[in-house]
């Protein structure tokens, strides 16, 4: 079994991630379940400049689109709700839609880089109360800017020990050592493998054990065959996770990485069974 905990839909900036590509890739590459967020929640561009109003999508619309996808494929898709802290907050509409669709909602999603908001800022606190209210894990992009630093996610996880946090990318574009160290310091802080080399994941497991890391990919960021190759046609790092890693770590460690840890963290026991 494979659970991909970091998958997207939506079209914004240079991203165009289609639902049909998610479903195709899951079938083609043996992914049993995906946790999906709508990237149209993006608030700032690649240079952290605020997007023009016409290019922005209200968070309630992103939430509804993601929940509708999960409703259509409840055995395959879970919703991670992309929230927009620069322009919006955790208002009554958000509470109401989660309350009405709690079975489909598996996490709250934040992208501090594309919101240009420090993840440990005070304005994030209403969202943390939302996570507590519904007992939802919080998945957070890390890397690329101080707003999205691993240390800021650590700060928030330390401040809220009753919420579980996933440090997505474990510091995108780094050697992942800072993230690895910080994750090892808190019981409620996890990492994922999105654009993390197999070598670094093995090192993480050797140093931190096999209970604190999850498989994630950013699928289908490079198209419907993201699991096979990148947008330039080069072999995807995820081929290592599928075909090489099983021979390099114990079977139980591999199963925890690829699905068992996700079942526990995202409460998927009724959906994903061995």
Folded structure, characterized:
This protein has 274 residues and is an alpha/beta fold. The chain is built from ten helices and nine strands. Strands 2-1-3-4-5-6-7-8-9 form a nine-stranded mixed β-sheet. It starts with a strand and ends in a 9-residue tail after the last helix. The model has no long low-confidence stretch (mean pLDDT 96).
Can you lay out the helices and strands and say which pair or pack?
Elements: E1 3-12, E2 15-17, H1 19-29, E3 33-38, H2 59-72, E4 77-82, H3 92-100, E5 105-110, H4 112-115, H5 125-134, E6 138-141, H6 150-159, E7 165-168, H7 177-183, E8 189-192, H8 198-208, E9 213-214, H9 238-243, H10 251-265
Parallel strand pairs: 1-3, 3-4, 4-5, 5-6, 6-7, 7-8, 8-9
Antiparallel strand pairs: 1-2
Helix pairs in contact: 7-8
Provide a short characterization of the protein structure.
By secondary structure, this protein is an alpha/beta fold. Helix content is 35%, strand content 16%.
Mean pLDDT, as a whole number? 96
DSSP E strands, number: 9
In sequence order, what are the helices and strands, one letter per element? EEHEHEHEHHEHEHEHEHH
Q: Percent of residues in helical segments?
A: 25-40%
**Compute the gyration radius: what is it?**
17 Å
Indicate the low-confidence ranges by residue numbers. Answer: none
Give the structural class.
alpha/beta
What best-fitting shape do the alpha-carbon axes yield?
A: globular
